[in-house]
Amino acid sequence: MILFEDIQRYIDKLNYLSKVEDEDVLKPMEEFAQKVGFPIVGRSVGRFLYIITKLKNPKLIVEVGSGYGYSAYWFAKAIGNGKVVLTDYNQDNLDKARNFLSKAGLIEKVEIRLGNGVEIAKDYKNIDILFFDHEKAKYLDSILMLKDNLNSGGIVIADNTLWHGKVLEEAPDRQTKKIKEFNEYMFSSPEFFTTLIPLRDGLIVAIKF
Fold this sequence. Notes:
This protein is an alpha/beta fold. It has a single domain (23-208), classed as Rossmann fold (3-Layer(aba) Sandwich), CATH 3.40.50.150. It has helices at residues 5-15, 23-36, 42-56, 70-78, 91-103, 117-121, 139-146, 174-188; strands at residues 60-64, 83-88, 110-114, 127-132, 150-159, 192-197, 203-208.
């Protein structure tokens, strides 16, 4: 936990006061994640993704690593006249995503693609929001390959950038070291203006100049 547990419980309680979400879809998604130990962004980050999408009014959102569609739900729920591209290696995950998003009435707002998310993302130009939630050690390589596919003013959002607090370790393991390198690149690059929000497990948010 990055936040104190009592603060997180308070935020979680507030999250469930909202009437915007489709509880008949979200609750089964969350219950499934808990049952099988599948990492999802959770409601606090989900609501943040919703707000960013509403503010940005994007035409194209590309997710690199979609799992079974939890983050895509929030993007698709908020997007207007645009499209959310889901990517994942696992066909079963994408089948579940299709089912959940269909139940939420959002399937017409998404495009679902099986395979390497970075390679798939290369197919798209003028990306307005690029979301990273794939192998953490590959974040830096991914942004280097995809930054030119972003619109000027495009937004990069990357999950797990505090990595359970391991970024504070003086002798980090390889994966933590790569996350730190990604974070440092995003803050030091003249091509991006970046902040790191301590929601859940840390969220990099950056605007491309």
